[in-house]
Design goal:
Number of helices: 11
Number of strands: 9
Distance between the termini: 26 Å
Radius of gyration: 18 Å
Order of helices and strands: EEHEHEEHEEHHEHEHHHHH
CATH architecture: Alpha-Beta Complex
CATH class: Alpha Beta
InterPro entries: ClpP/crotonase-like_dom_sf, Enoyl-CoA_hydra/iso
CATH topology: 2-enoyl-CoA Hydratase, Chain A, domain 1
Largest sheet: 6 strands, mixed
Protein name: Enoyl-CoA hydratase
Family: Belongs to the enoyl-CoA hydratase/isomerase family.
Strand content: 5-15%
CATH superfamily: 2-enoyl-CoA Hydratase, Chain A, domain 1
Number of domains: 1
Structural class: alpha/beta
Length: about 260
């Protein structure tokens, strides 16, 4: 079990509990996480969803050691496309559209696919040591599968972060509106829970309608269509990698691990 789930005082708390691997995401973790989101969505005692993580880091992204992928000589673009559609794009979009407010509490490193866990949440509370990055351009791919970069950061900051691979600090993330508030690391859980409790006092129907209004406004502006089209662009990166270098996740493994230090 990689995910803990509990409900108290109107707050459903979903916890990533794989700290020994910096909460890296293998397929089992993602499936358990999706099941927890589904449970929170239908749980009548839950008015607000709080996503948090045990350990030093929120998430190191995809598990590059034990992600559940086939051996390199068994990987095909068709397999990648189907697997990533289900567990990456579809999961993240489903979590975004759960009809209850959600908050991500982020500490330490949030790398690449880690963004696909916090960006679908409605609010983000970041510890002052939080860093957000998407370094997959180093792998010859234009960004993670849930390509919310332009919406979360604005076009020029999104390009900077992608082109350089450098992490965005919590303070920078707050300045561009990606993060709602930055708090001391020691206070992260308490302040995220306090915000969740404040929201839980509001009428559930009003919260649902407010969330729907904002999400649908983004969708009318092109959010959903853009994510779908950029996902297909992402797959061309995999296709190029398969034809050129075998598969870059394996080639760049040591480099990606170094980013956790």
């Amino acid at each position: 079990m990689y995910i803990d789930y509990e409900v108290a005082d109107g707050i459903a708390t979903i916890t990533l509990n794989r700290p020994e691997a910096a909460n890296a995401q293998n397929m089992e973790l993602l499936d358990e996480l999706d099941a927890a989101w589904t449970e929170a969505a239908r749980d009548e005692d839950a008015k607000v969803i709080l996503l948090r993580a045990e350990g030093r880091h929120f998430s190191a992204g995809h598990d590059l050691n034990d992600g559940g992928w086939p051996a390199p000589d068994k990987i095909t673009l068709e397999w990648i496309y189907d697997a990533e559609t289900r567990r990456y794009l579809d999961y993240s979009l489903r979590w975004r559209n759960v009809p209850k407010p959600s908050i991500a509490a982020v500490q330490g490193k949030c790398i690449a696919a880690g963004l696909m866990l916090c960006w679908p949440c409605d609010l983000i509370v970041a510890a002052d040591d939080a860093q957000f990055s998407d370094p997959v351009v180093h792998m010859g791919i234009g960004g993670v599968e849930y390509h919310g970069h332009t919406w979360e950061l604005g076009p020029r900051k999104a390009k900077e972060i992608l082109f350089t691979g450098r992490p965005l600090t919590a303070d920078e993330a707050e300045k561009v509106g990606m993060v709602n508030r930055v708090v001391p690391r020691a206070d992260l859980d308490a302040q995220a829970r306090e915000l969740a409790a404040q929201i839980a006092e509001m009428p559930a129907f009003g919260l649902r309608q407010a969330k729907r209004a904002v999400n649908q406004t983004q969708d009318v502006q092109g959010f959903y269509a853009a994510l779908q089209s950029v996902f297909d662009i992402h797959q061309t990166g995999h296709g190029n990698a398969l034809s050129v270098s075998g598969y870059p996740i394996l080639v760049k493994l040591d480099e990606m691990k170094a980013r956790l230090k």
